[in-house]
Write a structure and sequence with these properties.
The protein is of the alpha/beta class and 396 residues long. It has a domain of 146 residues: 3-Layer(aba) Sandwich (Rossmann fold), CATH 3.40.50. 47% of the residues lie in helices and 15% in strands. It has a seven-stranded parallel sheet, with helices on both faces. Strands 9-8-10-11 form a four-stranded mixed sheet, with helices on one face. Helix 10 crosses helix 15 and helix 15 crosses helix 17. The chain binds nicotinamide-adenine-dinucleotide and magnesium ion.
């Protein structure tokens, strides 16, 4: 029996994780649920899954939840930073699903890593920001890190065991690997007229052709910043050199990524686009469990196609690859700028193509000193947000 904490329980990944747990009640128990402020959703989850602890980051939300929870359930409601860290590091917890969206996930995810937990990583922004420090912390504590992001999970599944056991420090070339092929659908605007992009609305940007996801990652998929963040995520997880990592557009999202070996073999992982598959894989690894996902029907799929990425259409992807080459400071700046820009876009304050403009301006303007601690990273993230706010005020 594994006791699990779900960070970001009320989100899309949270829901998929709880669905896999429900399908395997003999092996997994929900110990803690964590969310920001959605009281009604958290109440429903508490009634359905009966955790020991329900943590709300927003204090008012925690009070409201406490008032609504039936006392007979005996669920402890907490709030506050220390309480959150106590929960993820508790000796009663085996596995932490890291599925808070954005930079807010960094501190609790890293705490789980430092406590040596089995960490299922969906929160790619945490790794994009802290890269080397995150990998070092994993090594120091002996935590088991498993990638939930479907592409990274696919790559992981296509890698030899010695690489799987050595994430972040592996030597791909020594294991006969020539390239990692990171696939991406291209999102809802892959074939839209370039001149129409500026006027695309949040509703249009969030309408992903294949995946159902939270709003931030949906917009990131439309700009392909998501693939850019994943490029950086892959760089850290698989310890890649720039030339070992390639982005391939694959609109059907049937292949979730591939690994190419020096003898010419290419190994791909395939499946229906449903996050319950990579989540179940991480929960059970190295075993397999039922995820509830329908088997892939090749006769319905029919065709698989592949294209090179177009950087004029997707300037955010180019920016992320550039930031990745510059190093961890640049990727922290880009991540913070992008969170601010996407939020402004979702609020209707800026247009779709202005997201890339904000990102580019921040990347160019923020001085990037060396970062040696998480405090440095958090300070650089905050500094970038102040600058992004100034740019947003000018262009909105
Ligand atoms: P979502 O918007 O559906 O859910 C976000 C969750 O984070 C919610 O539970 C929310 O309460 C919580 N949250 C937000 N701000 C918080 C804060 N300040 N403190 C604590 N909790 C906070 O997002 P999602 O689509 O589930 O994505 C979650 C993460 O997983 C993201 O990093 C995303 O990139 C990654 N991911 C998602 C998918 C997917 O299919 N949805 C796939 C791959 C990776
Ligand atoms: Mg992904």
């Amino acid at each position: 029996m594994q006791n699990m904490v779900i960070l970001g329980a009320t989100g899309s990944i949270g829901a998929s994780t709880l669905s896999v747990i429900s399908a395997n009640p003999a092996a997994y128990r929900v110990y803690g649920l964590v969310a920001n402020a959605s009281v009604d959703k958290m109440l429903d989850l508490c009634v359905a899954h009966q955790p020991q602890i329900a943590h709300m980051v927003d204090k008012t939300a925690a009070l409201a939840l406490k008032a609504l929870l039936p006392p007979a359930l005996n669920i402890q409601v907490t709030s506050g930073e220390d309480e959150l860290l106590d929960l993820v590091t508790s000796s009663k917890v085996d596995t932490v699903m890291a599925a808070i969206v954005g930079a807010a996930g960094l501190v609790p995810t890293l705490a789980a890593v430092r406590a040596g937990k089995r960490v299922l990583l969906a929160n790619k922004e945490a790794l994009v920001m802290s890269g080397e420090l995150f990998i070092e912390a994993t090594k120091a504590s002996g935590a088991t890190l498993l990638p939930v992001d479907s592409e990274h999970n696919a790559i992981f599944q296509c890698l030899p065991q010695e690489v799987q056991a050595n994430l972040g420090r592996c030597d791909l070339a020594a294991s006969g690997i020539s390239h990692i092929l990171l696939t991406g659908s291209g999102g809802p605007f892959l074939t839209s007229d370039l001149s129409s992009l500026a006027a695309m609305t949040p509703a249009q940007a969030c309408k992903h052709p294949n995946w159902s996801m939270g709003p931030k990652i949906s917009v990131d998929s439309a700009t392909m910043m998501n693939k850019g963040l994943e490029f950086i995520e892959a760089r850290w997880l698989f310890n890649t050199q720039a030339e070992q990592l390639k982005v391939v557009i694959h609109p059907q999202s049937v292949i979730h990524s591939m690994v190419q070996y020096k003898d010419g073999s290419v190994i791909a992982q395939m499946g229906n686009p449903d996050m319950r598959t990579p989540i179940a894989h991480c929960m059970a690894y190295p075993q397999r469990i039922h995820s509830g996902v329908e088997p892939l029907d090749f006769f319905k799929v029919g065709q698989l196609s592949f294209y090179e990425p177009d950087f004029e259409r997707f300037p955010c992807l180019a920016l992320a690859m550039e930031a990745c080459a510059q190093g961890q400071e640049a990727t922290t700046v880009l991540n913070a700028a992008n969170e601010m820009a996407v939020d402004a876009f979702l609020q209707g304050q800026i247009g779709f193509t202005q997201i890339a403009q904000v990102n580019e301006a921040c990347l160019a303007a923020i001085p990037k000193g060396a970062m040696t601690s998480i405090e440095d990273i958090i300070a650089l993230d905050a500094q970038t947000r102040v600058y992004a706010r100034e740019i947003l005020a000018k262009i909105a």
